[in-house]
């Protein structure tokens, strides 16, 4: 990996420093970039272990990609171990949360759900390969821009320095109380009570991370480490009250105190909070393209968070449910029904007011439904 040039320091970990590095292809003159985690050779055991773990996780789009590793002689004759990773242009999820908080912008539930989906896919991959991450938190989730997904980011899991080899159905026991591996505010109660580290560890940490995306705050308020440890073991984490029922239910399933009852990645990926976020994300992506399956069963396009329906038919109950799910999932969407032809072609004024009444039943919070009736006699 000789050709890489370390340009500047991105940050530091307990092992050493992380550099931004570039490499130019002498033929095509294309420049590649990477993040390089560096440690003195005699302090590089954890980085070498991380490289081994990342090699086994290579084939997931939801895990930061491992480019390679080498040993260089820096500063005279000091041997340095270098671990090359794909470079995350967007920083970390922690930066994104802080940024949103400072700008007093709350992430929409669709956004949070879409990010939770990506984290779940990453965790599922890690678990399938026989690992438990043990340190899921916003600072260990890296952000890659993804403009084509309606402005939403692509997230990848990073920092496998504390990961454990834990096959399915087995848990790692540290053998002592208060001996959790990961970062305390994201650690589940069982890791403090009995040193239990199973796949359920990552699910609890995911719940804490998702709640933090929703509110901008951690799930625990505490005075000091002792107070936090006591709260994790004896109290319920703070689940936000001003989010939808579905979002709250998702968090409850992640934050079940009993690790054997806590939901798995497979179960959580099927949860309506995730499914609705995916549905909305896909609909946003269509940007005005007619969708074949939609709540009305008629032509439907989405453009700039508005839904335009041409040739509406009377809404059947099963489709109505789908529409209401869609509305819950993205409260920022406003609905406007516009007619491509004289509405009397589709509705009598009586059925028109019936439709309007039905539509208003779905309306909640800041959703507005506007039905242009200027054509009606
Ligand atoms: N692939 C990457 N692309 C861009 N920045 C990165 C990348 N990997 C790490 N960084 C940045 O480098 C800094 C240190 O990262 P790292 O995860 O190694 O340290 P840490 O988690 O703070 O420390 P430790 O692992 O010892 O607890 C962080 O600011 C992180 O965002």
Automatic annotation (TrEMBL):
Gene3D superfamilies for the chain: Transferase(Phosphotransferase) domain 1
Source organism, top-level taxon: Eukaryota
ATP-binding among keywords: yes
Residues that, per the record, bind ATP: 37
The protein, known as: Protein kinase domain-containing protein
Sorted UniProt keywords: ATP-binding, Nucleotide-binding
Span of domain Protein kinase: 4-274
One GO BP annotation of this record: signal transduction
Annotated GO MF terms: ATP binding; protein kinase activity
Organism: Solanum lycopersicum (Tomato)
